[in-house]
Amino acid sequence: MASGGSHRRAHRQNSDPLAMPIRIPRYPLLTWTTQHSPGRGSMGCVLDAEHVAFTTSGRMATALALQIIGIQAGDEVLLPAYHCPTMVHPVHWAGATPRFYRLRPDLTVDLTDLRQRICKRTRVVVAAHFFGFPAELAALRVLCDEFKLTLIEDCAHTLYGGTRNSPVGSVGDYAVSSLMKFFPITDGGCLTSRQHRVDGIPLYCGGAGFEARACINSLERSVAHGRLQGLALPLRALVLAKDTIRVALMKQPAKGVQGADAHDNRDLPHQEFMPGLVHTRMSLFSRLVLGCSAHGHSIARRRAAYARMQGAFSHLPHCRVVQKELPEGVAPYVFPLWLDEPDQAYLAMQQAGLPVMRWDQISAFANDANCDTSAAFARHLIQVPCHQALTDKELSDLIVGIQRTIVGVRHAVAER
């Protein structure tokens, strides 16, 4: 039996994020190596739009768009029935009512169903590009024009590429994206438009504490995953200082400060909607990282990781590859994988420390859409990371871990 001192030392080690071994990173990481790439090739990018506003996250970009549009209490916003809960939070914040439309089995918009749900209170339609695969939205654009509705493209999963007819983010009146999903940063989103200005509502600096945390959190996450060797010791001092300053700031009332530090909840956005960050500008550190990023390298690495998973899972029993092709104009965000035994397999993967996720907590209001596609995807579909920071070993461990889990769960079910 371990002594009391050993227990205390173990607790200190386990509470130190820099001492916790995390095998496979869920999101991109900073490294010492600067990757050079000739560019994005022929791929378009949401950031190519004429008008761009950098926010702290994709959901804050959506909230800003709704504010610019002038959404008010009593207005309705139409959303896809299959969605991340963070898509709904900005609608509630704006005072509007979220309504949901059905999706077809390939996750394209069911235009017939959407048309039937439009009423005199409908102001906005949000359409999503899922998993990094750009959707064809030309017919939806025509429908929105017919009813004089504003179309917002949710590009949280799809920063690059486009269809044969249009680059991603160019069909909607506005497009929103979550830059944290594609770059090694812990804050960052954007609101863009090719025809409307997006600077009518100003964005403010988040304050010294916010800026410091943006930098330290990115460094901390990278060190915790074995990158940036040599920074562990000095970074621990910075983390301690960050936490000490944060506690002190939390005890003081805001004094007319604009941006993130004007609000009690000052943490960087991750899971919850934080109204205090709607008018906060993306941190300087994150903007610098974005400016130095090699887009072409990231795209190539993501496509290569996706191709390896495609080969590994295509013939694996008890699961199904959702997107069987990887067209040239696609830079995948994740690898979508359909599980026949989703509940047991997903739990086992989480317990094994595999960084998979699924949208199994869609809004309760979405049930009103009676969308079989949404219900099935929410239960059976997991999202497997395939980002550019995965090493060959991490990618192999991730693939093998998923294969073993699926087979193991199936054997356990068969033996019952």
Structural notes for this entry:
The protein has a domain of 120 residues: Alpha-Beta Complex (Aspartate Aminotransferase, domain 1), CATH 3.90.1150. The chain is built from twelve helices and ten strands. The strands form two sheets. It has a seven-stranded mixed beta sheet, with helices on both faces. The longest helix is centred in the C-terminal third of the chain and has 23 residues.
What's the CATH class of the domain at 295-414, please? Alpha Beta
What do we call the CATH homologous superfamily of the domain at 295-414? Aspartate Aminotransferase, domain 1
Largest sheet: 7 strands, mixed
Indicate the CATH architecture of the domain at 295-414: Alpha-Beta Complex
Q: Count the E strands.
A: 10
N- to C-terminal separation?
37 Å
**Spans where pLDDT lies below 50 across 5 or more residues:** 1-22, 260-271
With helices defined by DSSP (H or I, 4 residues minimum), what is the helix count? 12
Quote the CATH topology of the domain at 295-414: Aspartate Aminotransferase, domain 1
Give the radius of gyration. 22 Å
Percent range for β-strand residues: 5-15%
Structural shape: globular
Class derived from helix and strand content: alpha/beta
Question: What's the helical proportion of residues?
Answer: 25-40%
Q: Strands across the major sheet, in which order?
A: 1-7-6-5-4-2-3
Report the order of strands and helices.
HEHEHEHEHEEEHHHHEEHHEH
Mean pLDDT: 86
Based on the model shown, name its key terms.
single chain; 416 residues; Aspartate Aminotransferase, domain 1; seven-stranded mixed β-sheet; globular; disordered N terminus
